[in-house]
Amino acid sequence: MTWTRELDEAATVATTKGHWHTILFYLLCGLAAIPTSFLVFSQVFTNATPEHWCAPPPELEVLGLPDHFLRNLTVPGSHGVYEECLTYAVDPRALYAALSDYVDERSELVREGGALRMVKIRQLVPAVGENERKEQISKVKEAILAVRSPEPTPCAHGWRFNPEHYTRTLVTEFSLVCDKEWLPRTSNTLFWVGSISG
Questions:
Q1: How far apart are the C-alpha atoms of 136 and 177, rounded to whole Å?
Q2: Which one of 97, 136, 182, 197 has the fewest CB atoms closer than 10 angstroms to its CB?
Q3: Are strands 86-87 and 103-112 parallel, antiparallel or unpaired?
Q4: What is the dihedral angle through the alpha carbons of 71, 74, 80, 82, rounded to the nearest 10 degrees?
Q5: In the prediction, which pLDDT does 118 show?
Q6: Are 148 and 71 in contact (CB under 8 A)?
């Protein structure tokens, strides 16, 4: 028997359709489909964009005010729908002047290069006590409304994301919103182009 005849017989056995071949086909296709499905559908969750809005200025962060309160005052919107990429700018100097009762000024030594330098730090301090807290919140609201810019500007302090549906995605980790919102869609497109080419 020659090697070509052996090869022909092996090809005939391998291509004959029987129960074993049908089972083998479905096992291989089924097992290969599971990781492929994970790979394809994982992009739906990793590239998800949750509800987001501009983060408030860091000067207001230290007061520990509720997110919805700061969002209502610093982000344009109405009826619970807020701009995702615009905010009202707040001038820190004017804010500190308007809230002078709650400003803590101190000096700290900071090392820059090899030299020590004295730096003045101004920081808003949260009120203590329920009545004082209510009064502070009222004054903060008045101050923000008085010193914020009349026209919205692009976000300058990053974004806040609503963790209701997604706690962490690529979009939230790398702030792929507003001027970078095209990146997740492009990565998905490139994935499919790569799948076509092999």
A1: 33
A2: 197
A3: unpaired
A4: -110
A5: 78
A6: no
